[in-house]
Amino acid sequence: IGPCTADFTVTDAAGAPVYAAKVKVHIAYGFGSFHKLDLEQGTNIDGKARFIGLPDRTKHGLYFRASEGDRTGEAFDDPANTCKAQFTIAIQKKP
Length: 95
Hints:
The chain is an all-beta fold. It contains no helices and eight strands.
């Protein structure tokens, strides 16, 4: 739906890559944000995941949520400012 990408490295609290973590994003786009899309990507052995084809304009930006078991982490991106974003998400247990 657009030209932007987001690259992720998901790590644990010690900084080691996390295999098979899920990175999810909900995208509302188009006129009035009537079009909606939910995407999910799993990480590889190096803890890396990539989303391609993200819109370059969104009303509220994009919130990415990474999870594996009972550990979670988040990242935010405004594609209008950083169309080719790179993130490191450290996932940890909720208190």
